[in-house]
Amino acid sequence: MKKKVESFWFFTITDAPQFQTALSQEIHDRITTTSQMLDVSNEPTTAVNIAFSQKGLLALGVEEPLDDSDFTSGQAADATALGDPGTGNWVQAFTGNSPDIHGVFLLASDSTDNINSELAELQLILNNCATEVYRLDAAARPGDQEGHEHFGYMDGISQPGVEGFTTNPVPGQTVIPAGMILLGENGDTGTRPDWAKDGSFLAFRQLKQFVPEFNKFITDNPLPVPGLTSEQGSELLGARIFGRWKSGAPVDLAPLFDDPVLAADPNRNNNFTYAHPGANILSDQTNCPFSAHTRKTAPRADFDPVNTANHIIRASIPYGPEGEPYYALHAC
How many CB atoms neighbour CB 277 within 10 A? Predict the structure, then answer.
């Protein structure tokens, strides 16, 4: 669920019976279905989804376990595993020092006015049986930077296909069992209650991006490649850190220079494996280093057979005004 403008409205439930009534009688039919999102002609003006935390389910009297310890414990309990030095830098709403976050409404549209109108209607339906804990608004960057995150690199090119939903996978796209994403479907190894079938777990991360610092680092450390200028060496370093050039072209296919034509071709821009004839994939980093963001998150042929058990569907979008400071949020 991704459009030019998005909003995340985190809430706490203050009246569980009233909330349950509002959810079943009015909000249920406003939730955007997968079939709607897969059919452009059937997409609503503003897409709406909802997710609950473990505390939110308990507040509603739902005690059946979802058979997922990370969900049950909550993200704060896993902060160190995320690489965070505790929760001291977290937004206070997520640290447990404010009312519990019981859930979040996710809204996506093409204008802020549409988002605000839909959220106002939801809040009117709720009639204070759920109140705001935190709200975060986000929007795609303007002009030719739409689709690029604040570091300047095109985002969202590589996503797994899902069996039964992805009808025409593009070359190089890994197609995974539906149960890797949807509960209760083929490939899901957990024991889930019936009501959870076809739901999914949501991870939300709000991050600050150190854009000037990154740009200074690559400027100060250009790769000394024969035939490249210092500026080109810096651009190459940035591309090898991300695994793609700013256009979105993968360094595995364009190892020295950006290739915007390649980047714009969906039949080529994801069609690579990191394997090359005559090279040992266990040690070959000629085109793309093992430490590149794209190669760490999706190793492709580095795993034999290709790993289909650790995939996510991720959407990221910048938030805050254009310019410093720089922020991005990730919903997976």
Answer: 4
